[in-house]
Amino acid sequence: MTDMANLTLVYGMRLLPEGEIKQIHDATLDLVNGHQAHVTMHLLEGSREQIEAQLKQSLDAFFDFYPEI
Predict the structure, then answer these.
(1) How many folded domains does the chain comprise?
(2) Is residue 42 situated within a structural domain?
(3) What is this structure's pTM?
(4) Looking at the domain assignment, is residue 54 inside a domain?
(5) Which of 16, 30, 51, 61 could disulfide-link to 20, CB 3.0 to 4.6 Å?
(6) Is residue 6 part of a domain?
(7) DSSP string of 1-64, one letter each residue
(8) What domain range includes position 40?
(9) Model confidence at 42, in pLDDT bands (50, 70, 90)?
């Protein structure tokens, strides 16, 4: 296995009462090379336990896309 560069994980979280969100937009990142990147926002709903379980599952699935990490 080769050494990888350090990485940056961008994420955000906010809890709101169920039914309060009208629309969710992607977040835009301005990169140092002049390009832009987009972060897809995700919505998880349910009890605290359900949200925690969904978040853990989502995080595991995210890193499955990058098995080399």
Answers:
(1) 1
(2) yes
(3) 0.70
(4) yes
(5) 16
(6) no
(7) -----------------TT-------EEEE-TTS-EEEE------S-HHHHHHHHHHHHHHHHH
(8) 27-64
(9) confident
Long-range pairs of 6-13 with CB within 8 A, sequence gap ≥ 24: 7/69, 10/39, 11/39, 12/41
Residue 8, pLDDT > 70, answer yes
Which tokens belong to 25? 């937009």
Exposure string of 40-69, with b = 16+ CB inside 10 Å and e = fewer, is: eeeeeeeeeeeeeeeeeeeeeeeeeeeeee
Task: Specify if 9 maps to a domain.
Answer: no
The tokens for 52 are 């925690």
**Among 21, 60, 17, 65, which residue's Cα sits nearest to residue 41?**
21
